[in-house]
Amino acid sequence: ASAKVKNLTINNATISGQYKTAGVLAGTVAGTVDKVIIKNSNITNNAADGKTGSIAGSMGATQIAMSYADNVILNIGDGSTPVTNAIVGGLVADVSEGTIQACYTNNVEIKSAGAQSVGGFVGRFTIGTDTGSIQQSYANTTSTDANFGAFIGTISTATGFAKNTANVLGYLIGNIAVVYGKSQAGIVDTDLVKSFDKTFFK
Q: What is the SS3 assignment for the chain?
């Protein structure tokens, strides 16, 4: 059985160094994460090709549910020198076929320049056949990076990705073009996000 982390709050964490994957909870999440809160924390990742997120740098075919990041700063390099191979996400940097449900970021700041993929919620979201999903989630994240997408930086599939070309999914995705078949339909449930009520986190 896979590992599970539940009902955990991490406050005032500081992480600094050069990491392939970096997050306050873990570099890479391979098990289930449920009701994890990251607060008042700071991550500095000086790796030019690192993956950095408040909860984790990457996740595979797993689930993160009812979790959030609040008042977190993600520093990538010095914030002004381009880090063209870096992937940064307000919650998780690199999501591969995983499921994120009922999660959010609040007052998260990403300080990077020219990152490959940088998103307020997820930096890069890779979807397989009917496996990837983000539901009932939103992001309140800011960044001055020119490649910043308000919700997701880059969406990719096995057939490639489209980035920074059109506002197909509106305010959720920002600068993302999504031109995929029905197997990827509903990867971001806009109706659920717009009606999202975070009172159940109390």
A: CCCEEEEEEEECCEEEECCCEECCCEEEECCEEEEEEEEEEEEEECCCCCEEECCEEEECCCEEECCEEEEEEEEECCCCCCCCCCEEECCEEEEECCEEECCEEEEEEEECCCCCEEECCEEEEECCCCCCEEECCEEEEEECCCCEECCEEEEEECCEEECCCCCCCHHHCCCCCCCCCHHHCCCECHHHHHCCCHHHHC
Q: What are phi and psi of 71, to 5 degrees?
A: 60, 60
Burial 33-71 (b: 16+ CB within 10 A, else e): bbebbbbebbbbbebeebbbbbbbbbbeebbbbbbbbbb
pLDDT digits (tens, 9 = 90+) for 65-106: 999 999 999 999 888 888 889 999 999 999 877 888 889 999
Residue of 109, 92, 108 whose CA lies nearest to 100: 92
Beta bridge partners of residue 38, listed in sequence order:
10, 69
Q: pTM to 2 decimals?
A: 0.80
